[in-house]
């Protein structure tokens, strides 16, 4: 049985102090979470609820868990990626009243799933996932808990894809909110968050410049658009690969080169996958690449770059820098993989994940979704649900207020005009 993180560390007091400093910094830049904390502290909406969470355990996520606990919940949390946990933050979170954290960085597969089980042992009434690991484990191994689960919320694109597939198979047995799909999440977190933090993480891990580089962005969805735009803003030449014709056209009209990966492989200095798909960069592409290329993945799972094929091809492999593994080919070329092909913005040794302000929005939507489940959970059938639009707007309004941004309201005439089909020329 996995013990909470503080029982796993040699010096938990030091870790707690360091983690609390990181949480304090994040808290200062999360006005949405501050406003919701004030509301939840007063109204205690989560009293009697047990919230199980599997997310990237770093400072911003810790603030979400802390806010849910302040609203009366018993929270149990673990990681959703073996390399993204900050142990000090996990310890600081474990020291928060009402929270138990099992997350630890660098765990192997068995330890990773044992920590998920430890969270499930708390018999959650609500689940909050990033990648659907909790939902999957509960349905597969603990179906007896489903009756007492009010519902859950899912953070990321890949998790929502998996949930929809499960729903279509008739296998999803409690309601899940697709937090990822809200404008307040997707248009900011996936675009700006992934764009900024992936490039920052790659630059810091390698100490290399973007200017003049050819950056191949695989996938021109929300994350890909952010990565492409920010790389272009840093004076890189951007090449996009796609499988969806309209997305490919969008990238073309945005002024990027659009190429099949087989062609892009010859040109790129840096490759960043953002597809949520598997086998995007494979054997034949490695053969075409130049010496010294960087290979990074920003999609949820570590299956976008075929590392098994790369390992097989390599005559030698070694750690070129902290967080960079070089694979040497028979002809002497070195292909450098960052963060073992896992989420580059979260899993390199110096990675910090998305900027704080962006996560304030995403976690604001998470928090109001959990509140909605508690207040109106009975209204939702098992399956995947959109987060009600008024909740998303509520989060936007809190943020605009905090930023001191005023905006216009529709007049009565305008509202009538927009709702009418009879007005015309
Ligand atoms: P999206 O669905 O908006 O975009 C994915 C794009 O990839 C689509 O345009 C699709 O046509 C394209 N694609 C699929 N297979 C491809 C292939 N073989 N070659 C080239 N293009 C291909 O999804 P979104 O929101 O951009 O998310 C992408 C991934 O990033 C997901 O796994 C998601 O969970 C993850 N994600 C990661 C974050 C991070 O912090 N690194 C933050 C948010 C999402």
Provide tags for this entry:
single chain, 425 residues, alpha/beta, Rossmann fold, 2 domains, eight-stranded mixed sheet, seven-stranded parallel sheet, 18 helices, 15 strands, 47% helix, 15% strand, binds 1,4-dihydronicotinamide adenine dinucleotide
Protein model, in words:
The protein is of the alpha/beta class and about 425 residues long. It has helices at about 5-10, 10-30, 30-45, 60-70, 85-95, 110-120, 135-140, 155-170, 185-205, 220-235, 245-255, 260-265, 285-290, 305-315, 345, 355-375, 390-405, 410-420; strands spanning about 50-55, 75-80, 100, 125-130, 150-155, 175-180, 215-220, 235-240, 255-260, 270-275, 295, 315-320, 325-330, 335-340, 385. The strands form two sheets. An eight-stranded mixed β-sheet has the order 9-8-7-10-11-14-13-12, with helices on both faces. The protein has a seven-stranded parallel β-sheet with strand order 3-2-1-4-5-6-15, sandwiched between helices. The longest helix is centred in the middle third of the chain and has 24 residues, at about 185-205. The radius of gyration is 22 Å and the shape is globular. It starts with a helix and ends in a 7-residue tail after the last helix. About 50% of the residues are buried. The mean pLDDT is about 95. 1,4-dihydronicotinamide adenine dinucleotide binds near residues 241, 274, 275 and 299.
Distance between the termini: 71 Å
CATH topology of the largest domain: Rossmann fold
Regarding quaternary structure, how should these chains be classified?
A: single chain
Number of continuous helical runs? 18
CATH architecture of the largest domain: 3-Layer(aba) Sandwich
Bound ligands, named by name, code or SMILES: 1,4-dihydronicotinamide adenine dinucleotide
What shape does the CA trace take?
globular
- Strand portion: 15-25%
Number of distinct beta strands: 15
CATH homologous superfamily designation of the largest domain: Adenosylhomocysteinase-like
Mean pLDDT: 97
What count of domains describes the coordinates?
2
Query: What's the gyration radius in Å?
Result: 22 Å
Looking across the biggest beta sheet, what order are the strands in? Answer: 9-8-7-10-11-14-13-12
Structure classification: alpha/beta
Main beta sheet: strand number and arrangement?
8 strands, mixed
Fraction of residues in H or I helices: 40-55%
């Amino acid at each position: 049985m996995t013990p909470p993180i503080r029982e796993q560390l040699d010096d938990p007091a030091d870790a707690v102090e360091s983690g609390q400093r990181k949480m304090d910094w994040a808290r200062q830049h999360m006005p949405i979470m501050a406003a919701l904390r004030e509301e939840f502290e007063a109204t205690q909406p989560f009293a009697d609820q047990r919230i199980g969470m599997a997310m990237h355990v770093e400072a911003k996520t810790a603030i979400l868990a802390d806010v849910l606990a302040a609203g009366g919940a018993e929270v149990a949390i673990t990681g959703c990626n073996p390399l993204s946990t900050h142990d000090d933050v996990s310890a600081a979170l474990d020291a928060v009243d009402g929270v138990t954290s099992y997350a630890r960085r660098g765990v192997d597969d068995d330890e990773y799933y044992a920590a998920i089980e430890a969270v499930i042992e708390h018999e959650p009434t609500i689940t909050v996932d990033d990648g659907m690991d909790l939902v999957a484990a509960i349905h597969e191994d603990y179906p007896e808990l489903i009756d007492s689960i009010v519902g859950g919320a899912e953070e990321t694109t890949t998790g929502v894809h998996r949930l929809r597939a499960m729903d279509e198979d008739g296998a999803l047995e409690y309601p899940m909110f697709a937090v990822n799909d809200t404008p307040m999440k997707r248009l900011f977190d996936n675009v700006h968050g992934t764009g900024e933090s992936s490039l920052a993480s790659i630059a810091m891990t390698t100490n290399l410049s973007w200017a003049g580089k050819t950056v191949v962005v695989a996938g021109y969805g929300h994350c890909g658009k952010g990565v492409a735009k920010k790389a272009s803003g840093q004076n890189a030449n951007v090449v996009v690969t796609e499988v969806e014709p309209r997305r490919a056209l969008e990238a073309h009209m945005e002024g990027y080169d659009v190429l099949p990966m087989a062609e892009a492989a010859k040109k790129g200095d840096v490759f960043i996958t953002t597809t949520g798909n598997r086998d995007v960069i494979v054997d034949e592409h490695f053969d075409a690449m130049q010496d010294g290329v960087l290979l990074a993945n920003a999609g949820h799972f570590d299956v976008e770059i075929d590392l098994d094929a790369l390992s097989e091809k390599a005559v030698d492999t070694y750690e070129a820098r902290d967080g960079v593994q070089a694979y040497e080919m028979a002809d002497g070329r070195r292909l450098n993989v960052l963060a073992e092909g896992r989420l580059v913005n979260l899993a390199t040794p110096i990675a910090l994940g998305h900027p704080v302000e962006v996560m304030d929005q995403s976690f604001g939507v998470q928090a109001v979704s959990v509140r909605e489940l508690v207040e109106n959970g009975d209204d939702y059938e098992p399956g995947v649900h959109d987060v009600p639009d008024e909740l998303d707007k509520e989060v936007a309004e809190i943020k605009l207020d905090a930023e001191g941004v005023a905006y216009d309201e529709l007049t009565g005439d305008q509202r009538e005009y927009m709702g009418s089909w009879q007005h015309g020329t």
